[in-house]
Amino acid sequence: MPVRSTPLLALFPRTGVWFWRLPLLAITALIAIISFFVWFGLSQEHDERRAALVSDTLWMEQNLRYQFESTENQLSQIGNEFGGGGELHSERAQDKVRELLQGSSGLVAILWLNSEGVMLSTLPASAAPVQLADDHPIGVLRARTLNRPTYTHSFQLPDRTYAIELVMPIFGANDFNGYAVGIFSLPRIISTHVPWWFAERYRLSFTDSAGQEIASTTQANPLNETQAFGVTFDRMNGLGIRVNAYRATTRVMPAIVVVVLVAFTLVIAWSLWMLRNRVLRLQDTETALRSEHAFRLAMENSTLIGLRARDRQGRITYVNAAFCRMVGWSSEELIGQRPPMPFWPADEPEPITPEAEGSEAGHAAPSAVEMRFQHRNGEIFDVLIYEAPLIDADGHHAGWMGSVLDITERKRAEALARDQQEQLEATARLVTMGEMASTLAHELNQPLSAITSYSAGCLNALKAGRYDEKQFTDVLGKINHQGQRAGRIIHRIYGFVRRSESRRERMDVNAAILEATGLLETESLRRKVRLQIEMGMDLPEIMGDRVMIEQVVVNLLRNGMDAMKHTPETERVLHVSSEALADGVRIAVRDHGAGISPDIADRLFDSFFTTKPEGMGMGLKICRSIAEQHNGRLWFEADANGGTTFYLQLPVGADINA
Predict the structure, then answer these.
(1) Cβ atoms of residues 193 and 106 within 8 Å
(2) What is the rounded average pLDDT for all residues in the chain?
(3) Strand positions, DSSP E, 148-274
């Protein structure tokens, strides 16, 4: 038996579910860790941006507070310097006010009020009349009461922008001189005191006491609603600022790194999953192959048919247990053997094998050949080998595969069957002659009676002293003729019923027909059946057993006579003919009987089936067997005018099966 390599997967046990869950869990953990670090980095970045937002907002609040306080101080200096002497309208005071208005203070107008709160003048003059806050009187009162600068609530100017009032009490050397009121434009303060870098990062807006936005920087980018911070100014009636961070632009490289890392992780997970499925399929395939291999090996070892494989050089590559038992050698001893094989009989010629016939291409059809093998103990036995080309997985001719059957018992049974067949045929002939006994007795009685009569006449003539040489010569000639006739009848009966080995020889079919009709001549007269013989000319000779062919014709003639038992005497005609065919000869026996009914037509050639009360049911069965032994055919057809025709067709050169 060929050596089979152990598959790689067979070296490892089948993996369980945990084996595949562990890598998946590891990949899941890796994804979780990556996600955590990404989230942690984003969270850190968010916190850093939040801290920067708070820090920048507080810085902006301090800067704006400083600007408001600086403006307060400048306005207070102007008021204290020029308010007490009534010099507010002097050229110097005007220059100071213009400098303050045109600077970065954010003021759009300055109002001078007397101690009673009545407006004295407005700078610049183009600002009169000035829009004042709704709570202007309250602011003035609060500034006088607290003796310090106060701010009113925000209000809307005619240009729809918002502003706030600064009410500054002004004192002279010894008394209260009035109020200086500065109107701050919130958009101007934003445009003046918010640096460019701050505006790029954040959106700054002023809010009132209700938290409503009243002025803001231009929104250039989408806002990050989650990052905002607000601060309220002290002493400014709820005025505050709120800073919103713009939505951060995505940083390309970190995003690419994260995306690539996640993509590789997913690809690894997908690859591992596909590898898992493939390995599981391989394991299932390996298990199925092992089961199939074990099953086929069990079948090969349990079968009674010997199996043998050979390569193209004739070397044995595989044998099963049945073949080893058949020849007596083990598989280890046989595998690798080259011709001549140890199980070939030494005194017989080398058997013809497919490779010896030159069928190297591997396209030869499977063939069967009978051979003789020799067991290791010396016993000779017959085998039947079915040999077919062995094609490998690539479609190449790799050698030959043979199925070896021990047919010794079968050949013995066939020989026994042939002997029994011959005995049965001889018995059938004896039965036929037994059925013809009365006819044969009558046929023999005629020459015997004639011989008796002629011999009695001669004796009487001799006793009477009458002696006529010519008369005696005629009588003795008639006695001799009748004796020869009786001898021919006995010889014909002996030749028909004697049991002998089948002889294959060239024979004339017409001679066999004449011999058969001669045997039944007396019986046909007794049954009042007319025999019409029509023999073809120039029939080819066939190879066969003449006695067997005569037996078939006799059986067909007697069956035809039986079929016309109830036919009127004038119509009892049995027609026998022979004709030449392209590949042989055909004998036809046609009767004018009642025909064969369809219910018995299919059983007519079965063993032991008969319609005659005294019949054995083997006549037609034996006739068909004889026809098949001669490689011929026996069948019947119904005639359109009534009756049946039986046909016996024999090929030229037909050989009797051994």
Answers:
(1) yes
(2) 76
(3) 150-151, 155-156, 162-171, 176-185, 202-207, 213-216, 223-232, 240-246
